[in-house]
């Protein structure tokens, strides 16, 4: 499609951030750090909006779509996929004719095409996914620094202009992200099942083990803390993400079960060599990650 307005003169751009939770709040704080012209915060929670204004994180607060969005050059949707669709549908009449819309949802599916179908003129949706987060949820846990050095995934669709793809890649770097990669939605969701969905499921399962009790906290060190850090997550958001990507997640759970079976067999057979081989293999792969 024809590219619309895609300036990277950050200080002259107005951004609207939809959803002022952990990621949306962090986006707003990163934008403030970047020194953009204006930040519009959109959220249904008036208390969160007041807090964001009191902290000078946003310049204007909106409880939903309305005329206040007309100033936005870029809209960042940091809400559930279904909520993204609902918001865009209600916001289209108020948006600039060449507005760029992006998102932060962890699972893409058909979202890019579904959103683009709602747009008119030179409005364009380009899917993005910052691999950034931290323990907890909500605006109070947000911080600009979660993007520093984080990976950022651009998920272009067939309809996307080269200008939009280049813009969102530049934007990722501007807010502090390190590596920027491009994959399509199908590949994104398949990989994310392994690198994000599975680790979150395992953290929850580890905490929920029958072995957990009131004395567990006296017997933990770094490995347990690291392994369970993301067990404290937003259950509403993550249940949606798991279900939206359930086929890929089920495949990863099956693959992980096979690895556990290797451990069970080696321990049952008292096979020290097999245990050592698995750990050496993992050490080599782990070092390649960083």
Structure description:
This protein is an alpha/beta fold and 290 residues long. It has two domains: 10-183, Rossmann fold, CATH 3.40.50; 188-289, 6-phosphogluconate dehydrogenase C-terminal like domain (6-phosphogluconate dehydrogenase C-terminal fold), CATH 1.10.3660. 46% of the residues lie in helices and 13% in strands. The protein contains ten helices and eight strands. It has helices at 22-34, 46-54, 81-91, 111-116, 162-174, 185-207, 222-228, 235-244, 246-268, 272-289; strands at residues 14-18, 38-42, 60-62, 74-77, 100-103, 124-131, 151-155, 180-182. The protein has an eight-stranded mixed beta sheet. Helix 6 packs across helix 9 (246-268). The relative contact order is 0.11. The model has no long low-confidence stretch (mean pLDDT 94).
Q: How many strands appear in the DSSP assignment?
A: 8
Number of helices: 10
Query: How much helix is in the residues?
Result: 40-55%
Annotated CATH topology of the largest domain: Rossmann fold
Structural class of the helices, strands and pairings? alpha/beta
- What pattern of helices and strands is seen along the backbone? EHEHEEHEHEEHEHHHHH
Distance between the termini: 37 Å
Q: What does the average pLDDT come to?
A: 94
Reading off the top of the CATH hierarchy, the class of the largest domain is best stated as Alpha Beta
Number of domains: 2
Assembly type of the chains comes to single chain
Strand order of the largest sheet: 3-2-1-4-5-6-7-8
């Amino acid at each position: 499609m024809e590219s619309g307005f895609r300036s990277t003169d950050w200080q002259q751009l107005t951004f609207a951030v939809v959803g002022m939770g952990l990621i949306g709040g962090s986006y707003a704080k990163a934008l403030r750090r970047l020194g953009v012209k204006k930040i519009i915060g959109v959220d249904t929670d008036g208390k969160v909006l007041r807090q964001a204004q009191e902290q000078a994180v946003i310049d204007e607060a909106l409880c939903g779509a309305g005329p206040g969005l007309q100033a936005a050059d870029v809209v960042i949707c940091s809400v559930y996929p279904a909520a993204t669709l609902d918001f865009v549908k209600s916001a289209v009449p108020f948006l600039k004719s060449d507005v760029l819309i992006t998102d932060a949802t962890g699972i893409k599916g058909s979202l890019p095409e579904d959103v683009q179908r709602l747009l008119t003129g030179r409005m364009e949706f380009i899917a993005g996914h910052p691999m950034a987060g931290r323990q907890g949820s909500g605006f109070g846990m947000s911080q600009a620094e979660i993007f520093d050095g984080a990976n950022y995934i651009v998920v272009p669709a067939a309809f996307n202009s080269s200008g939009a793809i280049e813009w969102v890649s530049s934007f990722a770097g501007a807010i502090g992200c390190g590596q920027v990669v491009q994959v399509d939605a199908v590949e994104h969701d398949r990989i994310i099942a392994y690198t994000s969905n599975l680790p979150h499921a395992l953290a929850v399962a580890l905490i929920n083990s029958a072995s957990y009790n009131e004395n567990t906290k006296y017997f933990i060190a770094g490995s347990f803390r690291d392994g369970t850090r993301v067990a404290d997550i937003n259950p509403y958001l993550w249940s949606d993400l798991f279900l939206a990507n359930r086929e890929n997640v089920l495949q990863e759970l099956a693959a992980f079960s096979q690895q556990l079976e290797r451990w069970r067999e080696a321990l049952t057979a008292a096979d020290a060599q097999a245990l050592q081989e698995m750990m050496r293999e993992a050490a080599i792969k782990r070092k390649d990650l960083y």
